[in-house]
Design brief:
Layout: E1 14-19, H1 25-39, E2 45-48, H2 55-67, E3 73-77, H3 84-96, E4 101-104, H4 126-137, E5 142-147, H5 165-180, E6 185-190, H6 194-206, E7 213-217, H7 223-233, H8 239-246, H9 252-272, E8 277-281, H10 287-295, H11 308-318
Helix pairs in contact: 9-10
Bound molecules: flavin-adenine dinucleotide.
Length: 319
């Protein structure tokens, strides 16, 4: 089914999990086992990221996520190195798998390049992709787009590291164009300053963006990943977080525990502002996300679903 990110009941909090296609067979096996355990916690939906070099795997994973685990699945789709034909092919495949949700993205520049270049016979932006999905498939797909509480990293920054106000405004206007073209849901880039996220939601509402805006939560699980992501996304890191991490940065376990504590506090603040949806960048790790959900009282003890062995037979039959 299409994702409905609005909670059905007044106090119900919806949460969702994001995964990336693993690089090895061992990784794929591990991810299947993890999905099996995570599915028992009934996420509202889950999604699989896209990179052109792993397209086949994203399509296969999306099929398993939707049809073996029976959880509404959203596949990311980008314009990087993708012609319109390859985009259409991917959309056709997921349609035939009964998947009804797409996260339409421009995508990052191809590996080793620092500027996005439109593929030959392809699209220049997420806006083009949203329009294309709507033109070609009507309202079959629920279309989601990315939103940037601190503006897209290409937007010029001031000395304080924050985006210029003109750049921020242009980014918002452009986001509205993606919504006006047919996107029904926004998932945000990661952030660590919750006030920036709350201001972003407010600013979106001010300019007439009315669809649900789902905060992207990134549980810190190790220093390397944290530094890589925040420098890539040009994320502002509040000074108290820098200070807390500075004192424990060589202790992996302490960093993980702090990541869970911080993630819990960020989610609490968001939920306290009446926002009832949380999207977790799991980076294919299980414990940080589950610990945060447990701290929030949104899940209880580890549940066990149908034994994976029976699913593995289904998976074999499918491929
Ligand atoms: P766009 O919406 O096209 O915008 C990119 C930038 O260009 C913005 O600053 C926008 O303001 C500007 N811009 C573009 N066109 C115009 C225009 N006509 N007028 C004015 N400004 C314009 N990357 C992957 O490779 N695979 C993934 O699976 C993936 N998943 C992601 C999931 C989420 C939730 C998020 C937030 C990001 C994800 N990314 C992924 C990263 C994303 O691809 C990059 O951030 C990329 O650089 C921009 O993609 P976009 O869809 O936001 O682009």
């Amino acid at each position: 089914e299409k994702i409905n990110a609005a909670s059905k009941e007044e106090n119900q909090v919806l949460f969702s999990f994001e995964y990336f296609p693993p690089r090895t067979h061992v990784g794929a096996d591990r991810l299947l086992q993890q999905l099996d355990r995570m599915s028992a916690h009934s996420p509202a939906y889950w999604d699989i990221t896209w990179r052109d070099s792993a397209a086949k795997l994203s399509l296969e994973m999306a099929n398993v996520m939707q049809n073996i685990f029976s959880i509404d699945t959203m596949m990311h789709l980008t314009c990087t190195k993708m012609s319109i034909e390859t985009i259409d092919h991917a959309l056709q495949i997921i349609k035939s798998q009964g998947i009804q949700n797409v996260l339409a993205l421009r995508g990052d520049p191809p590996l080793g390049q620092d500027k996005f270049v439109k593929a030959e016979g392809g699209f220049e932006s997420a806006l083009d992709l949203v329009k294309h999905v709507r033109n070609k498939h009507g309202d079959y797909f629920g279309v989601t787009v990315a939103g940037y509480p601190e503006a897209h990293p290409d937007v010029p920054r001031n000395d304080d590291g924050l985006p210029s106000s003109e750049g921020y405004q242009n980014d918002l206007v452009y986001l509205k164009r993606k919504v006006d073209a047919g996107a029904e849901l926004i998932i945000t880039q990661l952030f660590f300053d919750t006030n920036i996220f709350l201001k972003f939601v407010n600013d979106c509402r001010q300019i007439g963006i009315n669809c649900p805006i789902v905060p992207g939560i990134f549980p810190i699980s190790d220093m390397r990943g944290f530094l890589k992501m925040t420098s890539l996304c040009k994320t502002k890191i509040p000074s108290e977080i820098t200070a807390a991490l500075e004192s424990i940065k060589d202790n992996e376990e302490a960093v993980r525990a702090y990541g869970i504590h911080l993630g819990t506090e960020i989610c609490k603040k968001i939920l306290g502002h009446g926002i009832k949806t949380l999207h977790f960048y799991t980076i294919n790790k299980e414990k940080p996300t589950l610990s945060i959900l447990m701290n929030l009282g949104l899940i209880s003890e580890r549940k066990v679903s149908r034994p994976l062995s029976t699913r593995q037979e289904d998976i074999k039959r499918m491929s």
